[in-house]
Amino acid sequence: VRLEQVIADAFSVLDGEIAQVGAQVKLPDTNTQTTVDSAEIQEVVINLLQNSLYWLRRVPKARRQISVQVHRTGMDEVEILFSDGGPGVESEFQERIFEPYFSTKPDGVGLGLTIAGEIVSEYYDGQLALLESGPLSGATFHITLRKRVQ
């Protein structure tokens, strides 16, 4: 499957909410052929997108942006960079956001990023990490996939 199409399909699931928030979305226009499981990758992307949309509501409309990039870094490694213009993750919480049951959202369960991280590590021998900075001013997540990407 084309990884960029899997990401676009995940975004289309939340088209209504994206429009409601008024987020400007920039998806990758690259063409990365992989053998990933679409449902697994969509679950990771939808989780990141739901978090972004929640936090983008807390910034001025001009900052409500989401950017996704895909880069093949080797025959058996692909990177996805998911960035938003939200408030970012406060430094005191950055080490804890992947812990089960930890959430900074009032109604959050604290399992989304945990599950997303487990999918990436267990099924793709990869890593889901929060970067200190990225293309946009808010949170930037770096996903590395090392299996099923040839």
β-sheet strand percentage: 15-25%
Largest sheet: 5 strands, mixed
How many angstroms does the end-to-end distance come to? 11 Å
String of helices and strands: HHEHEEHEE
| Strand-pairing-aware structural class | alpha+beta
The rough form would be described as globular
Question: What level of helicity do the residues show?
Answer: 25-40%
Rounded to the nearest angstrom, the radius of gyration is 14 Å
Task: State the total count of DSSP E strands.
Answer: 5
Overall mean pLDDT: 95
Spatial strand arrangement across the major sheet: 1-2-3-5-4
Total number of helices: 4
Sequence stretches where pLDDT stays below 50 over 5 or more residues: none
Structure, explained:
By secondary structure, the protein is an alpha+beta fold. 33% of the residues lie in helices and 21% in strands. A 5-stranded mixed β-sheet has the order 1-2-3-5-4. Helix 1 (3-13) crosses helix 3 and helix 3 (38-56) runs antiparallel to helix 4 (112-124). The chain starts with a helix and ends in a 5-residue tail after the last strand.
Quick gist of this model?
This protein is of the alpha+beta class.
Can you tag this structure with a few keywords?
21% strand; 150 residues; 33% helix; 5 strands; 4 helices; 5-stranded mixed β-sheet; alpha+beta
Present the secondary structure layout:
Layout: H1 3-13, H2 15-21, E1 24-26, H3 38-56, E2 65-74, E3 77-84, H4 112-124, E4 127-131, E5 140-145
Parallel strand pairs: 1-2
Antiparallel strand pairs: 2-3, 3-5, 4-5
